[in-house]
Design goal:
The chain has 310 residues and is of the alpha/beta class. The protein has a single domain, classed as Alpha/Beta hydrolase fold, catalytic domain (Rossmann fold, 3-Layer(aba) Sandwich). It is built from 14 helices and eight strands.
């Protein structure tokens, strides 16, 4: 009888924790959506909304953000500078920011979705910049045809040795995602998020005001977290399949990568990729981390300008 009472008490406790977690998730997600509403426009692709932020005039330039992010990474500073010379289209990838999720999370489907979305704005042959995971999406787009040129910033492009960090290993299984993702959505603290942001920027500092602008609360929504971990966990396998096709890419590619990047190391990705691609220019930003479009934005803008000349 004592064992039955203990089991019942444990079940009740777990139920209360679950109820508390989902209540907290609801509160946090409502606050996130209120604090960081859509600031762009929506287009529909196959019945799903894609959120785009458009500014400026000139040649079309599409910006694709990385993992755990949104178009706000670019609207912090870079879009305003680029809009002087380009019509800039900053995209929320499917399932992140304010774009609807797609059950097919593959790089190829993300690329097709974004390609179709910007085409509805008349951008049929844009320059495409992809940062971090967004660079892999940009490469998938190039393999489908369409971009005038690519600018890949700190982009994963080749299969890497070893495994991802513990967060992605835990969430690589359906059970892990079902348990850990809601708990993270409910209880991850802002101090933890800020520390993770500092790690991504290191050894460069986080720009003043970036933490408040970027909208990490959007990333912590349960659906967004689940989409992000599924995308990242599938990335290596997709790059294995894409790598043999890279020599077929005949468009110009500008690669910008910091040699201090420990998130996506230069020697595993952009350095060898520059020798595989037929038309590639590699710019190594000495001492820079994973976010040179913030820490060394002039270098990235110069790479975009070179891409626009082709």
């Amino acid at each position: 009888m004592t064992s039955l009472k203990l089991a019942a008490s444990l079940i009740l406790l777990l139920a209360l924790v679950a109820l508390g977690a989902y209540w907290r998730i609801g509160v946090r997600e409502a606050a996130a959506n209120a604090a960081f509403p859509p600031e762009g426009q929506f287009v529909s692709v196959e019945g799903r909304r894609v959120h785009l932020f458009v500014k400026g005039s000139g040649p079309d330039l599409v910006l694709i953000h990385g993992a755990s992010g949104s178009h706000r990474d670019f609207t912090f500073d870079l879009v305003d500078r680029l809009a002087e010379d380009f019509r800039v289209i900053a995209v929320d990838r499917p399932g992140l920011g304010h774009s609807d999720p797609n059950p097919d999370i593959s790089l190829a489907t993300q690329a097709r979705t974004i390609k179709a979305a910007v085409a509805k704005l008349g951008a049929d042959n844009p320059i495409v910049l992809g940062q971090s995971y967004g660079g892999a999406v940009a490469l998938a787009w190039a393999l489908q045809g369409g971009p005038k040129a690519l600018v890949l910033v700190s982009a994963p492009s080749l299969p890497w040795p070893g495994t991802l960090d513990i967060w992605y290993r835990i969430t690589s299984t359906p059970i892990g995602r079902a348990i850990v993702v809601p708990l993270a959505s409910a209880f991850v603290t802002q101090s933890y998020v800020d520390a993770a942001t500092r790690m991504v920027f290191a050894p460069d500092p986080v720009p003043p005001g970036y933490d408040a602008w970027i909208g990490t609360a959007l990333t912590l929504r349960t659906g967004t977290l689940a989409t992000n971990v599924a995308q990242v966990n599938g990335l290596r396998g997709e790059l294995v399949l894409m790598e043999p096709r890279y020599p077929s890419l005949t468009l110009p590619v500008e690669l910008v990568h910091g040699d201090g990047d420990t998130v996506v190391p230069l020697h595993i990705h952009s350095d060898p990729l520059s020798r595989i691609l037929p038309i590639a220019t590699l710019t190594i930003v000495h001492g820079a981390g994973h976010m040179p479009h913030h820490s060394h934005s002039d270098v990235v803008i110069a790479a975009i300008a070179r891409a626009a000349l082709h």
